Amino acid sequence: MKKEYQIILIFALLSIVKLHAQGIVGAQLEKETGATQVSIRAEILREGNSDVSETILFKWGDGVEEELPVLSYGYLPFVNLTLAVYHGFHVYEEPGLYELSFADGFLIDGIKNIESSGQKMLNFKDTISLLPQENPDSNNEAPFFLGDPTIDDLMVDENGVIKYIAVFDQEFYTPIEDFRTSIAPFPASGYSPPPGNLYMDGNILVWDKPVEPGLFGVCIKVREFRQPREEGQDSLFMSTAHRAIVLEIDSNFIVSNLSLESIEGLVSLFPNPTTSTLHLQLQHAQATPGKLQIENLAGQTLHTEALDLSPALQSWQVDVADWPSGVYVVRLLAGSEQVVRKFVKE
Predict the structure, then answer these.
(1) Phi, psi of 237 (to 5 degrees)
(2) Which of 1, 93, 117, 327 has the most CB atoms within 10 Å of its CB?
C-alpha cells in the first residue's frame, strides 16, 4: 500500500549546505529516450531530515560530463528519509549503447557488506540503448521503478524468508519480449554479496533466511528485451534499470536451527539467477568434513561434492550451464547440521 508523503518541493536552484548532509541509503535513475536524446531523472535518498547536494556529477557515456543541479527535494517523514531529485537532458551524435553514471556523497555508516561504508561514495551506473530514428522503437521510456527506492515494508514469513516487491513500469503498450531481473552489486566500492541466499523471483526480491541481522546494501537490476517487429531478427536489448537500496534485517527476522557459532554455512551464493556458473563461498566455525549437494525441486540430486570445511572463507564453483531452467536447492551438510538455500538457473 502506498503511503502519502508530505513532500516539500523546491523548484529553484538553491545554495544547499553540504557539510551536514546525512549518509545515502538509496538511489535510482529514470530515463526517457529518443533516437539521439535522453532525458534523465536521478533520485537519491539520504538518512533523516537532511541537507542534500546542490549538484551531482553526471556522465553521459560519450565523453561528456556535467554538474546537474537539484530540481527538487523534500523530507519523507513516514520513512525518515530525504529525497533529492536531479534532472538532465542530453543529445548524442549517434545511436548506440551508452553507460550513464552519477556520483554523490557518502553512504551511511554500518552497512555490513560494504567495507567502511560511511567512507564510500555512491557511484551509480546504468545503461541506455539508443536506436536509429527509422526504428519504430527509437522513442521509448526505458524500464523504471515506480515509487521511491525505500524498503519500509519488508514481508517476512514464519520460515524466515524475506520478500520485497519491486514494482517497475512494464510498457504494456509495446511489443515486449522479456524483462529479466537479477541482483547486482550496490553501486559503491568495497561491496561483497550479503550472507545468505538472495535472488529475484520475477519482480520479487527474495532473501531466503538471512543468517545475521544488520544493514545490507543490495541493488535490483532489470533488463528489457523487445520482440523484433520483423521475422528473423534477434530480440532488441533496450536498456537497464537499477534500484540501489539498504535492507535492515532485524534480529527478529532470523529463523534458523543453526547458530552462527556452529555453522555459518553459505556465506554467499552468486550470481542468482545464473546462466552458467554458480559461485559459492562457505565457512565453518571449525575444521570439519562436509558435503555440498544440489537438487532440483523434484528431489533429484544433480551435484554432490565432499568438502573440507574450515573457519577460513573458501570458494567453490559449480557448472550449471547445461541444466534446465528452474529453481534448485543447495544443501550444505556438516554432521547433523545443514543449511538450505535456493538459486534460479535461467
Answers:
(1) -80, 120
(2) 117
